[in-house]
Specification:
With 257 residues, this protein is an alpha/beta fold. Helices cover 37% and strands 19% of the residues. It folds into two domains: 3-117, Rossmann fold; 141-255, 3-Layer(aba) Sandwich (Rossmann fold).
């Protein structure tokens, strides 16, 4: 399944489009903050970037510049009015960037992505392009939460073939993503700055509609006192970092059967 990095402010329009896209593509959501977009480009390695131009004045032009300079072969679709597009007009001079005029139906966005990626929507991994409907992916979803980009990239590569994987670089970003799309399981780093794993788990359990999402802690500290503190929170499991692929797959499989 092809990977899409969807850059947008969080609003109802973005939520609805994300839900529609997720039936055909593996979607990773990112706010339009430059640092977050650059981190996601590195971690996710998307096949296409989709950018909503709503609130265009809050979008850093360096995002467009970095993509055109560092990722010249990465197709970019934007969704915006002609007025919104004018803020970045010089980037549309070649084929890399293409704007879809809004308002636009979700189905047209889905088909535009398929056209740019030259994929068959009936078989997202195929090469020819048609518009056959596809069944939603049967993969279980896993959210990885860790402030280290290298760790995120490493674990994501271990899980991509088996699960639908999304990533978050902090506890607060994880909560935003959970609100957008509920995962089947969360891999949560215990040692994070500002909002650590313990606080993140407490916030998850404080919300009744997401309180029962199973959480497996990841920790880089192996002393007895630290492990006892992790276990006292009664997670679905815990693993020491760096994780081994076979063990992390086994641990997840035991929790989400």
């Amino acid at each position: 399944m092809r990977k899409i990095l969807f850059v947008s402010k969080m609003n109802e329009t973005a939520k609805n489009l994300n839900t529609a896209l997720s039936q055909y593509y593996q979607v990773q959501f990112s706010s339009p903050m430059a640092d977050m977009v650059f981190g996601m480009l590195d971690v996710v390695g998307p096949d296409l970037v989709l950018i909503s131009l709503i609130g265009v004045t809050d979008i850093d032009p360096v995002i467009f510049n970095r993509i055109s300079t560092n990722y010249p072969d990465l197709p970019v679709l934007t969704i915006g009015t002609e007025s919104e597009q004018k803020h970045f007009l010089r980037y549309y001079s070649d084929d890399q960037f293409e704007n879809l005029i809004r308002p636009i139906e979700n189905s047209r966005v889905i088909n535009a992505i398929a056209r740019r990626l030259n994929v068959d929507l009936g078989n997202p991994d195929a090469g020819d392009k048609t518009a056959a409907p596809a069944a939603p992916t049967a993969k279980k979803s896993v959210l990885i939460v860790d402030d280290n980009a290298g760790t995120l990239r490493n674990i994501k590569s271990m899980l991509d073939d088996t699960y639908e994987v999304t990533v978050a670089t902090s506890g607060m970003k994880a909560l935003t993503m959970i609100g957008k799309k509920r995962p089947d399981l969360i891999l949560l780093d215990y040692e994070m700055p500002i909002v650590d794993g313990k606080q993140t788990l407490e916030m998850i359990r404080a919300e009744s509609d997401i309180a029962n999402i199973p959480v497996i802690f990841l920790t880089g500290v192996s002393d007895r006192e630290h492990i006892e503190a992790v276990i006292s929170l009664k997670p679905a499991g815990y693993m020491l970092k760096p994780p081994v692929k076979a063990k992390i797959l086994e641990a997840i499989a035991k929790v989400i059967k």
